[in-house]
């Protein structure tokens, strides 16, 4: 029907805008990846906090991007973009086909179907059981799509991260998608393309399930107006994304650890045996939140160093003067 065609067109337009936004913001993602793997090329500077005590802050995300541009130029800020875009495209198309093959049709939101009486009062919504079943169907479809997207796109995610991690040691091993795929296969075999997949799936799927369930329960029992019901899922997703952010840091580190890159070997990064090993180390050194703050990035020397990891990361540049 015309309505379905219009809906499909809107989806493609939305997808195109998503790719455009992803491309425009890639320099910030580039800087964030380098921060997540623990690379800090610029020295922290002394500042006075709002509470009045002296502390140290690392350069914000804009200063970090500026530094990358000063080293590699404007085009250098977009290193790793191509495999990231390819991963997004094949992941989205592939996951949608998997969902259709499994018979998981898209469930329309009931908020758009609510009718109003002649007195201006909103009529009662669908029966509670139907609403609950729709939520379960929608959540099941989202889990399948999200999981399959991660599985399909992970090889390109690993390639993209390693391309960006080359900045640390100034290597050129991962000059293209083909060269990167060849290098990863020679080093780690097929499993190398899925480095960091487990923590990423755990973090993303846990966030999806908890955010969706919380939003559904709150909208059902506490929210009555349409505007609040539409805004709360965004808020819930932000909260749970923050909670599960450490899984993204671990996933990024595991995508690089053990590779031939300088960024993936001591002293820049320990050689982790598995992702739990990486989690334990980052937890002990207080680094599980790397990259979560983009502006006020407070620096502190790790207070606890695990004896199993004598080399935590490459030393930061030293501050020559402190007032």
TrEMBL record:
The keyword Transmembrane applies. Solcar repeats lie at residues 133-221. It is found in: Mitochondrion outer membrane. The keyword Cytoplasm does not apply. GO terms for cellular component: mitochondrial outer membrane. Keywords: Membrane, Mitochondrion, Mitochondrion outer membrane, Repeat, Transmembrane, Transmembrane helix, Transport. Signal peptide: none annotated. It is a multi-pass membrane protein. Its main location: mitochondrion. PROSITE patterns: SOLCAR. InterPro entries: MCP_dom_sf, MCP_transmembrane. SUPFAM superfamilies: Mitochondrial carrier. Gene3D superfamilies: Mitochondrial carrier domain (1.50.40.10). Belongs to the mitochondrial carrier (TC 2.A.29) family. PANTHER family: LD43650P (PTHR10780:SF18), MITOCHONDRIAL CARRIER HOMOLOG (PTHR10780). This is Putative mitochondrial carrier protein 2. It comes from Phlebotomus kandelakii.
């Amino acid at each position: 029907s015309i309505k379905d065609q219009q809906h499909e067109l809107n989806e493609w337009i939305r997808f195109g805008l998503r790719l455009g936004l992803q491309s425009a913001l890639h320099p910030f993602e580039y800087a964030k990846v380098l921060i997540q793997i623990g690379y800090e090329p610029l020295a922290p500077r002394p500042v006075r906090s709002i509470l009045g005590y002296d502390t140290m802050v690392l350069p914000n995300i804009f200063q970090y991007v500026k530094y990358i541009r000063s080293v590699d130029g404007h085009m250098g800020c977009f290193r790793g973009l191509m495999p990231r875009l390819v991963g997004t495209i094949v992941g989205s198309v592939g996951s949608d086909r998997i969902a259709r093959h499994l018979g998981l049709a898209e469930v329309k939101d009931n908020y758009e179907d609510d009718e109003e009486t002649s007195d201006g009062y909103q009529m009662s919504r669908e029966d509670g059981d139907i609403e609950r079943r729709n939520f379960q169907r929608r959540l099941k479809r989202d889990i399948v799509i999200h999981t399959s997207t991660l599985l399909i796109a992970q090889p390109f995610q690993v390639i993209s991260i390693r391309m960006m991690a080359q900045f640390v040691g100034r290597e050129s091993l991962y000059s293209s998608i083909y060269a990167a795929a060849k290098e990863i296969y020679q080093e780690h075999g097929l499993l190398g393309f899925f480095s960091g997949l487990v923590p990423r799936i755990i973090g993303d799927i846990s966030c999806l399930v908890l955010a969706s369930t919380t939003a559904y329960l709150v909208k059902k029992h506490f929210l009555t107006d349409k505007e609040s019901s539409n805004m709360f899922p965004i808020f819930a997703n932000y909260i749970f994304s923050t909670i599960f952010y450490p899984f993204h840091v671990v996933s990024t580190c595991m995508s690089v650890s053990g590779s031939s890159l300088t960024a993936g070997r001591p002293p820049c990064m320990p050689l982790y045996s598995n992702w739990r090993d990486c989690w334990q180390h980052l937890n002990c050194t207080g680094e599980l939140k790397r990259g979560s703050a983009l502006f006020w990035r407070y620096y502190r020397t790790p207070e606890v160093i695990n004896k199993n990891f004598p080399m935590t990361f490459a030393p930061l540049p030293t501050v020559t003067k402190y007032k």
